[in-house]
């Protein structure tokens, strides 16, 4: 099969995006791993597939795979690229696009300046939703014992996909590459977890690095940013509108507390189009 694709990124979190509306496309795990291989395939953090919706009220269905072939519930930076892709490919002329995901619905709002705001829905702090096997009852911070490292304090957050948010005094490579994988695959997270390390600069700004589940550290993680900011707001550390500085650039997050949705705004960039034999 000759597969047409667009290579895109949101702040350096990179994607291969495929139109499965105009033509049916199926991938097996080996094909996804091949496409995701930066040396032998195309290379990406996530593969995004644009499909027709199941529900008639929705505009599209959004499927997401990590580069190791695992299917995931949500990808925030990918959602902004998804919006740009469906408009560029003339799959819609709407600027407010309703999309089904594996875990619920999201809304993509294309702004006049080309940036995209994603209504990510409401976060959940209930450990069961990640899942996270909590030893304590509902508390804002949980302590997790890491083999050979000791205890870390974290906030479990689900924004569709699972995140563990760790507040740190200073971000270091050692933390992200050392603690990241230990938390990602800790037995208390049966489905594994994305791990965010957040340095609070002031009530409106944070530095953030994310060690993504099944991928490793990425230049930016949209859902990871939403999870970190809502955890910080809930703890009382942050105001309701925050700018997160990631390795790949800045994302703006807005959240007004329990019962309200998270709004994430940032850029989406197409790099090139291509085709590859599968
Ligand atoms: N890069 C993403 C998140 C992708 C999924 C994640 N690796 C997972 O396994 O949940 C984003 O921008 O949100």
Quickly list its features.
alpha+beta; Diaminopimelate Epimerase, Chain A, domain 1; lysine biosynthesis; 278 residues; binds the ligand N[C@@H](CCC[C@H](N)C(=O)O)C(=O)O; 4 helices; 18-stranded mixed β-sheet; single chain
CATH topology of the largest domain: Diaminopimelate Epimerase, Chain A, domain 1
Q: What small molecules does this complex bind?
A: ligand LBFN2T5F
**Number of structurally distinct domains:** 2
- Overall morphology: globular
Helix percent band? 10-25%
The CATH superfamily label of the largest domain reads Diaminopimelate Epimerase, Chain A, domain 1
CATH architectural type of the largest domain: Roll
Runs with pLDDT <50, length 5+? none
The first-level CATH class of the largest domain is given as: Alpha Beta
Secondary-structure element order, N to C = EEHEEEHEEEEEEHEEEHEEEE
Give the helix/strand class.
Answer: alpha+beta
Strand count = 18
Amino- and carboxy-terminal Cα gap = 5 Å
The overall pLDDT, averaged over residues, is: 97
Description:
Substrate binds at residues 13, 46, 66, 76-77, 161, 194, 212-213, 222-223. The record marks 163, 212 as: Could be important to modulate the pK values of the two catalytic cysteine residues. InterPro entries: DAP_epimerase_AS, DAP_epimerase_DapF. Keywords: Amino-acid biosynthesis, Cytoplasm, Isomerase, Lysine biosynthesis. The active site is at 75 (proton donor), 75, 221 (proton acceptor). This protein is of the alpha+beta class and 278 residues long. It folds into two domains: 2-119 and 267-277, Diaminopimelate Epimerase, Chain A, domain 1; 127-260, Roll (Diaminopimelate Epimerase, Chain A, domain 1), CATH 3.10.310. The chain contains four helices and 18 strands. It has helices at 29-36, 76-88, 173-184, 222-235; strands spanning 2-10, 13-19, 46-51, 60-66, 71-72, 96-101, 104-110, 116-119, 142-146, 150-158, 162-167, 194-202, 205-212, 216-218, 241-246, 249-254, 263-266, 269-277. It has an 18-stranded mixed beta sheet that branches. A hairpin with a 2-residue loop joins strand 15 and strand 16. The longest helix has 14 residues, at 222-235. The protein is globular and about 50 Å long. The termini are close together. The site of the ligand N[C@@H](CCC[C@H](N)C(=O)O)C(=O)O has 19 residues, from helix 2 and helix 4.
């Amino acid at each position: 099969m000759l597969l047409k694709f667009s290579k895109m990124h949101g702040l350096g979190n990179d994607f291969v995006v495929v139109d499965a509306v105009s033509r049916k496309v199926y991938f097996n795990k080996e094909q996804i791993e091949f496409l995701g291989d930066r040396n032998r395939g195309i290379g990406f953090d996530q593969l995004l597939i644009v499909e027709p919706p199941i529900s008639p009220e929705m505009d599209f269905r959004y499927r997401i795979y990590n580069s190791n072939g695992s299917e995931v519930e949500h990808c925030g930076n990918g959602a902004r690229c998804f919006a740009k892709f469906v408009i560029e490919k003339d799959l819609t002329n709407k600027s407010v696009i309703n999309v089904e995901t594996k875990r619920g619905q999201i809304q993509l709002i294309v702004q006049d300046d080309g940036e995209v705001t994603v209504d990510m829905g409401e976060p959940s702090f209930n450990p069961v939703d990640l899942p996270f096997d909590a030893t304590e009852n509902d508390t804002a911070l949980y302590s997790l014992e890491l083999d050979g490292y000791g205890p870390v304090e974290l906030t479990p957050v689900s924004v569709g996909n699972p995140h563990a948010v760790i507040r740190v005094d200073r971000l270091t490579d050692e933390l992200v590459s050392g603690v990241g994988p230990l938390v990602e695959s800790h037995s208390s997270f049966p489905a594994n977890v994305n791990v965010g390390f957040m340095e609070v600069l002031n009530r409106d700004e944070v530095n953030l690095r994310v060690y993504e589940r099944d991928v490793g550290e990425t230049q930016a993680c949209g859902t990871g940013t939403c999870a970190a900011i809502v955890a910080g707001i809930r703890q009382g550390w942050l105001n309701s509108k925050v700018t997160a500085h990631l390795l790949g650039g800045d994302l703006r997050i807005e959240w007004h507390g329990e019962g309200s949705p998270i709004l994430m705004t940032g850029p989406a960039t197409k790099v090139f189009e291509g085709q590859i034999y599968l």
